[in-house]
């Protein structure tokens, strides 16, 4: 059975440690061969826009968010919440290459598959 992990990130710059933890866990899972799906919701939606991850404050003893995001995009899936995108006026044309927009039905489908673990940050 393939190991899969779905991570939903709800925080952004207002909660830097929690945000960085989510990206760190996702990147570590990708590096371990786990199938990863990272969902960007709430203030984390901004990480789907080019250049926004680079604005995130560096944390001591933590890998930078832009580096982690590149690892995740290299072998995982990154999804921006449909409602979160709409509230911020974002369309697929505004996003980093490889990020898709999808809604709650897609999230529910992913987290209810056999063998999937889900985390929310």
TrEMBL record:
Gene3D superfamilies: DsrEFH-like (3.40.1260.10). InterPro entries: DsrEFH-like, Sulphur_relay_DsrE/F-like. Pfam families: DsrE. This is DsrE family protein.
